[in-house]
Amino acid sequence: MAPPYEVRMSSSRGIPYFFNTETKQSTWDAPPELSQAEVDALPGAAQHLRGEPRPSQVRASHLLVKHRDSRRPSSWKEANITRTKEEAIEILRGYQAEIGGSKEKFIELATKHSDCSSHANGGDLGVFKPGQMQKAFEDAAFSLPVGQFSDIISTDSGVHIILRTA
């Protein structure tokens, strides 16, 4: 599973810090359990650690699996979603294994299985700008190179695999 961290910028000190999205704790130093490659792959690392400019907009697709603690635990497939977050993550891990690096397989699985209405478009969310998506989703989508998949990202909506398409 992806480390539960993202890199954010301190508005008071103007320097980056590491925020644990599960515990809601922050630290100035990189978490010692992460390798340098894992730190470099964190949402927000490109912008806040390496100074790479953030694009003004991106286009992305996703495959969403909701769980009972999602903000709206229902979808076009299920009126009442009762799976745990851990079960939702395991489902996505299975999809990751099927996808490999195939965009075509991703689209197929998103169409069949995503708990988002975007399933009708193969998971395509269209173009969006900063501030239009939940922060963890936005940070992941904006930090991905075009054509790359995220690891599992958790938001209030559920758990996602994101594919940046433009």
Automatic annotation (TrEMBL):
PROSITE patterns: PPIC_PPIASE_1, PPIC_PPIASE_2, WW_DOMAIN_2. Residues 1-33 form the WW domain. Keywords: Isomerase, Rotamase. Its EC number is 5.2.1.8. SUPFAM superfamilies: FKBP-like (SSF54534), WW domain (SSF51045). It comes from the Eukaryota. It catalyses: [protein]-peptidylproline (omega=180) = [protein]-peptidylproline (omega=0). This is Peptidyl-prolyl cis-trans isomerase. It comes from Somion occarium. The lineage of its organism: Eukaryota, Fungi, Dikarya, Basidiomycota, Agaricomycotina.
